[in-house]
Amino acid sequence: MSLSRADRQLVTLLRGCALLAAAIVLLILLFLVKESWPVLRHVALTRFVSDASWHPMDGLYKLTPMLSATLYSTLGAVLLATPLGIASALFSRYYAPSLLAGCYRRLIELLAGIPSVVYGFWGLITLVPLIGRLHPPGVSLLTGILVLTLMILPTVALTVDAALAAVPIAYLRGAAALGLSRWGLISGVALPAARSGIIAGIMLAAGRAIGETMAVLMVAGNVVQQPLGLFDSVRTLTSNIALEMAYATGDHRAALFVSGLALMSTLLVVVGTAELLSREPQHD
Amino acid sequence: MTKNSLATGLIWLAAILVSGVFFWLLSDILIHGLPHLSWSFLAEAPRNAGRSGGIGSIIVSTVLILAVAMVTAAPLSLATAVLLSEFTRYDSVFGRLVRSSLDVLAGVPSIVFGLFGNAFFCIYLDLGFSILSGGLTLACMVLPILIRTAEEGLQATPNDYRLAAAALGMSRSAALVHLLLPTAIPALVAGLMLGIGRAVAETAALIFTSGYVDRMPDSLFDSGRALSVHIYDLSMNVAGGDASAFSSALVLILLLLIINSIAMGLAKHWLHRGVVTA
Q1: Residues 96-125 of B with CB under 8 A from A
Q2: Neighbouring residues of B226: CB distance < 8 A, sequence distance ≥ 6
């Protein structure tokens, strides 16, 4: 169908807008690189690992304590949230009576929308004193993991729920006709059929945990050190940016932009993998 | 058979645990937040670093930041969505390019938006710590959500409308303005609400763009403290600010509940009108 002149003008305008929207990502990358350039130019990348400590004002840029804190808190949160999230999805889809299932799903949706700063605040007021009684001071890797678990659990539950909903009903009827028990049906048919969607959901949740700033910042204690146990106070990569941006100048500021760049590249890999998995044709 | 009952037990246990923890969280905020909540709390300016007084100026700043974000992001995302859904073939190179760049944008963590907003809007464009910088940063952040929901809304309008418009000799733009956009309006508004919900929950992207100042803003170039930043500041930097922080958290959650129910109500209303079938 050919377009009239007015239509062609409209399309040109719309293309301009779409290009602008698409260019924002490049603009972000450009500015991250531009701002981190002063440090990247004269500091070798290996020094972010091999330096003695993180004292950016003295030109020491060891990022590994923050990297391990991010890694451990994400890993812990994913390990806890995955079984609970999958169980939540199974509960609302196969176990709960329909009225209860609806309520439960609404609750999870509500929780998915609660701001991270509220989770962090609640963790600080409630969880920190509880864990402090177990092992003072309470602000620790463990508290960070627990708050992150709460935050990403709705993401896991909702994506797994959607993946289970996409399993063709014929599979389930077939399994029921074979006389499988409810758990047999779930573990033998439903979960394997929804596998790629479930993995994508877990990856998305991991991405959310890596990128989360406020909740962890408020409960993890923020001491720059290599975490050795669950009760150690830790500072994640994101918290480090949030805490030091306020006063950082010069090379210190540039080093924070380097960690932003590192964060963004990690997330691109994680989210990209999730995207690929969820695009994979699931059922034929 | 025992495996089956074991699984049933464990799944019920997990569901009870999850809802228990979340009721604990919600009731904590309700119990501690409600006594302090009143009209004067909503209207008054914060005093004594927020320990007493209210959140009047903070609500004004929050609304202004949201308004800047939505006024910028809504037209841009509507235009992009119209182009993607009405004027671009799904598998075209241009469409794929725009879509994947938006997917990447959706995955950028909020603290990185904060870094970018600080470097670009505050320093490069010289807007300083201002409501404008914060709003524009949030606009970049909500763009992928707005575009995706608007695109889905447009794609759900019946193809018959497009065929009938073409048969009547209407131009594509006339069909768009008179038929497709009016039909998709509830979906567009629902998407807008989702975007507002995401923006109002944001903290990390605002700390270094719209700043901390809790005075009543005089203009968009003033620094203004958003509600979520207020909660963060009260709980981390102000000793004895917990009561106000609880009430502010309650206000924030109520605000999100209202926004979400509007979005869901619209989506439902739209389905019931029979324009599309879900």
Answers
A1: 97-98, 101-116, 118-120, 124
A2: B58, B61, B62, B65, B134, B200, B202, B203, B206, B210
